From TrEMBL:
SUPFAM superfamilies membership: Acyl-CoA dehydrogenase C-terminal domain-like, Acyl-CoA dehydrogenase NM domain-like
Family, as annotated: Belongs to the acyl-CoA dehydrogenase family.
Assigned keywords, A-Z: FAD, Flavoprotein, Oxidoreductase
Superkingdom per UniProt: Bacteria
GO molecular function terms attached to this record: acyl-CoA dehydrogenase activity; flavin adenine dinucleotide binding
Lineage of origin: Bacteria, Bacillati, Actinomycetota, Actinomycetes, Mycobacteriales
Residue span, Acyl-CoA dehydrogenase/oxidase N-terminal domain: 6-115
Keyword Disulfide bond: no
Entry-linked Pfam families: Acyl-CoA_dh_1, Acyl-CoA_dh_N
Domain Acyl-CoA dehydrogenase/oxidase C-terminal: 228-367
The protein's required cofactors: FAD
Identification of the protein by name: Acyl-CoA dehydrogenase
Length: 375
């Protein structure tokens, strides 16, 4: 695969990085920690102007019709800046809705693209694996509509979203529903998590009644749609981890060049050089694995599940090793609340667990290899 960026992609990266440099300071991120705002509304408004949520929407539906690699490039930059935006959940939901036949498709995609609404994906459940086997929320027919009952966890930015994409079991099979976040019976509460820079929520669905138009996909279509969403979300979380790793490397190299000990910059010591070299190798390998997975997702020539699991398993571990080295090389200052390092470390730990941790994806890879051997 060719990892060279096109001129259009370079423009997307440059414009995104410029916006984040101007509007996404870490001081602003710290202000959001103790506020009721789930994300930086002003930054998101500017991001909508650049077309961030429209990237995942087909041109026929009023979007920009870009591929997964373009979404990943934006996610990398958001990770580098530790931005608090609903980018990942909104584009993941927009992608799923755009590939569905729901009667609400045009209206929902327009609102997401224009930034008048955000969306969140309610999938994970407490104590359950990151797979369809972990879904216990149910949907039952009632009149011309449906009744949803269950609970979801770690739903990013659900407390500020207008639309929830909910996965549930309908007659024993996965079905996908578009649910207004303010529907009677929907209760949303923010979780206290390690990542203090972003909002993750518990979502309870207590006999939530929705109309027939809420059904986004069922049967085989829902299976294919969920597989796509699982892969896309995983790639974008890995991409954000890549951006975090790149920023941690830059921070650490800059610090060891300036920190003087025994009359010399600590970066001149051989042991420190080796650690920085390891960090660079891990960051570069993570970038390659993630880009490959993103390109595979839009190609029919590659094993998508394999590429995505390899990327998430490797990147989750590698970037957290980068974070560990960064913390060690910063010394005592890296342990303080005032230093920004811990904010990146917190986001890295959270992202490593989201969308399936390294162990989960290694188990998937082992299961695939075992099935191939048997076959």
């Amino acid at each position: 695969m060719n990892f060279e960026l096109t001129e259009e992609q370079r423009g997307l990266v440059d414009s995104t990085r410029s916006l984040l440099a101007a509007k996404c300071s870490l001081d602003r991120t710290r202000e959001l920690i103790d506020s009721d705002a789930g994300f930086d509304v002003e930054l998101w408004r500017h991001g909508v102007g650049l077309g961030w949520p429209a990237l995942a929407i087909a041109e026929d539906d009023g979007g920009l019709g870009q591929q997964t690699i373009d979404l990943a490039l934006v996610a990398v930059e958001l990770g580098r800046s530790l931005a608090a935006t609903p980018f990942i959940p909104s584009v993941v939901v927009a992608d799923a809705i755009g590939r569905s036949e729901t009667a609400q498709k045009s209206k929902l995609l327009q609102s997401i693209s224009e930034g008048t609404a955000t969306a969140s994906w309610a999938f994970a459940e407490y104590g359950q694996p990151w797979s369809r086997a972990g879904i216990s929320t149910t949907a039952e027919p009632r009149g011309e509509g449906w009744v949803l009952d269950g609970a979801k966890v770690s739903v990013q930015d659900a407390d500020t979203a207008q639309t929830l994409l909910v996965d549930a079991l309908l007659e024993g099979r996965v079905a996908r529903f578009v649910v207004p976040a303010d529907s009677p019976g929907v209760r949303i509460g923010r979780q206290a998590t390690l990542d203090v820079t972003r909002s993750y929520c518990d979502v309870t669905l207590a006999k939530v009644a929705v109309g027939a138009e809420a059904l986004c996909a069922s049967g085989d279509l829902a299976d294919a749609s969920l597989n796509r969403t699982l892969a896309l979300n995983t790639v974008l979380v890995a991409a954000e981890l890549v951006g975090i790793g790149q920023r941690l490397l830059d921070m650490t190299v800059g610090y060891v060049k300036e920190r003087v000990q025994f009359g010399k910059p600590v970066g001149s010591f051989q042991a420190v050089k080796h650690k920085c070299a390891d960090m660079r190798i891990w960051a570069q390998a993570s970038t390659a694995a993630t880009y490959y997975a993103a390109l595979a997702l839009d190609s029919e020539k590659h094993d998508v599940d394999h590429a995505v699991s390899v990327a998430k398993a490797y990147v989750s571990d590698a970037i957290n090793r980068v974070a560990g080295h960064a913390l060690q090389l910063h010394g005592g200052i890296g342990f303080t609340w005032e230093h920004d390092l811990h904010l990146y470390l917190r986001r890295a730990r959270a992202d490593a667990a989201l969308s399936g941790d390294a162990r989960h994806h290694r188990e998937r890879l082992c299961a695939a290899l075992a099935a191939e051997a048997v076959g």
